[in-house]
Design brief:
globular, mainly beta, about 25% strand
């Protein structure tokens, strides 16, 4: 399963789906997965994506604390020692604007 969340603020980002503005789950497939989020308010937001290969609905880690599953963030923000800061992954949306984002999934 591929999970994607949109966060409008740093609180809850990236792992608390209850704090997300929007949350989607779709079946994983080879190649690209397309998700459409409508009515995202103008301003800054971040997209967080997880490829949940073990189907436990969370990012799994190995004994060294490294992710065992694919993940990614808007602006393809680096996640070297944990998730990137909200502002490093934030995308700006103007009133009435729509955006197409591509989020690269980091392989585990």
């Amino acid at each position: 399963t591929v999970y994607a969340s949109i966060f409008l603020q740093a609180e809850g980002f990236p792992g608390d789906k209850d704090m997300a503005f929007a949350y989607r789950a779709v079946a994983a497939q080879d190649g690209a997965v397309v998700l459409i989020f409508e009515e995202v308010p103008a301003g800054e937001f971040v997209v967080a994506v997880l490829h949940d290969a073990d189907e436990n609905q969370e990012l799994s880690f190995n004994l060294l604390g490294m992710p065992k599953e694919g993940y990614g963030f808007s602006r393809n923000a680096d996640a070297m020692f944990g998730p990137p800061p909200f502002n490093k992954a934030a995308v700006s949306l103007q009133p009435g604007e729509s955006k197409k984002l591509t989020v690269k999934i980091n392989k585990a």
